């Protein structure tokens, strides 16, 4: 790509940026996203992609800017330093701001402060300002207590914060702004001198006190001063302005206000959408350390950059209609808290202050809260942006207010109309939708239909039989169908036993979650030859689907077309031996007949390793199969820099070559299918690549290129991406989005769909009056499924989870067998299993997220359980006890790195290679999908180091996307339930 000189945006002025930067940023993004702006004296970086890139490499885009306005205004804080100095100071600052400390210590204080300043607001009466009479004093007092500045007032902090922030953004070089900033600078130093001495003699939970208690580090006084000033700036204005803008947004968007008042869980969505829509910290600086290129523009060494978060968070290439405030929009990773090593330390405190305390309290307390037309709100700023004034009025005070009003909100939800709901399809999409609608409408009768006598669809018949951790999500669905008002109706076929029109007449809400089962055909000549089959059909056969006929056994050489996770599943199931299927629910005889002749598997994909669609963990799982040799073609250079998980996984295939293989896996990259050759059956697969055609002789071809719409599908898959066909008729899962998305994705989609249904009900487009559908001859209920489940488990061979009944007739017979005595229902939570399995939860974290998840998991085990929580930074390899299960919750730091505190643990494993045979662990990786190459890479590096020392990973590899809508703790709970289900199965199997 040819780079160019930066265009000059001499039309941009600071007053225009202050008034409304968004039209300016829109034009700058359209013109490339990197401009020299003379009035500002720096390059403005405005596109999401370019801003994101600056976060990935602190060696090129340095925070330690020479002549920094922030350094002049506040001193040289950690925000203006790069690692390793930045990390040392950040680690010292972290204890009081960790999410666990926020929840245990500070949230109650935030609640008390919010109630105090709400009372003062109410005392001033209608016409008071929500910013200056509530938000600002609340944020200032909360920050004053958190820091431990007991000799100052909240008014002092407001003045200090504003004047130093004004100086930080003093690009116009106004001498009066500098003078006011210097006055505050000196006042903070004087207050600190007194309070540091006091905290040294009076240890407590505040930031200053915690700072003085660090055993192995003493921060120099000038750095303490600089970092406290930085904390006073960002720690006050960020929650203040997020709270103000959120209130303004909800007061000007009544339909979204109504939605969140009905469902208090949406306050987190309000918070994130607010700081995406108007980022409180709108711009920060970086400096280029050497000649480089950004977004096709040449930047010279020493160039000063203005990183425009306000602009990046409204990039049209990332968000649809980004100028709109919409709490229902698809969750994507905004940049308001920064990314990489400088991600905001105070994020957890700000989130608790605003989303968990102040916003719910404000809106639940004041009846008729509204803006004043005659005195309109004002907003301004570009380096920092927030409400300048927000006068409001109200008609009265709601009874019972003054504390968190979640109970009242829940009561309002309980009192809402209860529509009668039919969901067609009981797979993950249908079951997650039933869960979400149950939470939204607790009194709604919900009936889930399935064409099979058994529930759970894809979980039972689509997930690979050797991945029992993934299948364990059915345990939480079991709990769903034991609730009053939720009914499973199996062996009921849409289009046979009832028509769609009948459902629409019989139910107020109909959700179609029937999925897409037919394998997409490979679009090349010869695709219809005998012995060319789809991966979906193969997986269903190996999962004993009653409608899937047994295929001809595979021959010696098999070509699998595709490099996605479905292809990885097929390859793994074909290449595994019987010992490797321990604890699965596979039909051993069918698996043996189908795979026993295979000697060579060719896995062929069109992409290079870095852009392949597979999960790198699944590739590593293949690399670890005993008796399997791997040969790699066309991968090109595989750099050993640890920055790309997929490349590292492909390199791992070649690490330990097998000399006498049972099966050989030939990996082919960069090849596109051209044709399949053969007369009476397929005999060869022909591909084209950079070096011409490649012909691979084969006895069988398995295509893993996606799925297509089933014949007679009730609606066109993907035609209604928001899930609404019309009010009252909706789609979920693959029928909604087309054949993409994982099981966890279905949970997030279900939440979105529940909001849409609730909005239709509120608007009157959907009513609550339908009678429901009468019983259908031959249908099975949940007790019938439990009998099928019991029969399959009782007849399982040693080392197997179950022996699935192979026909509908056999399933129906078991469902009606009253002699099968059903055991008490197992709640299936972690607590029951955790009480029996000693467990250590190890976390690796940079900003505290993984620690919070670890703490949340520990509370699920119950008081009687033997569970410990430890920081990976404090653990040695010889402390990993084989008698205990280890849950590892680890974030990714920087550009695909292990969190700094956990790096010594990993380094010792790799250098010392202790023998960890017998140690069992599971991994939950926390990351951000916007970092495509390195998403959850930090946790993968821990995983790889443990495996290299002989430890055994159990269960599915859990992941959480920070940009998604599902809370990390919720995703971790589901992951842990799956892990312990596999642990329990392995224990039973050994017994």
Question: Tags for this entry?
Answer:
991 residues; alpha/beta; 6-stranded mixed beta sheet; 6-stranded parallel beta sheet; 35 helices; 41% helix; 15% strand
Question: What report would you give on this structure?
Answer:
With 991 residues, this protein is an alpha/beta fold. It has a six-stranded mixed β-sheet with strand order 16-15-14-17-30-29, covered by helices on one side. The longest helix has 31 residues, at 221-251. Mean pLDDT is 89; it is low at 401-414 and 827-833. 52% of the residues are buried. Helix 17 links the parallel strand 14 (421-424) and strand 15. It is globular, with a radius of gyration of 30 Å.
Number of strands: 36
As a percent range, the share of helical residues equals 40-55%
Within the largest sheet, what's the order of strands? 16-15-14-17-30-29
* Bulk shape: globular
Concise overview:
Strand 31, helix 32 (849-860) and strand 32 form a beta-alpha-beta unit.
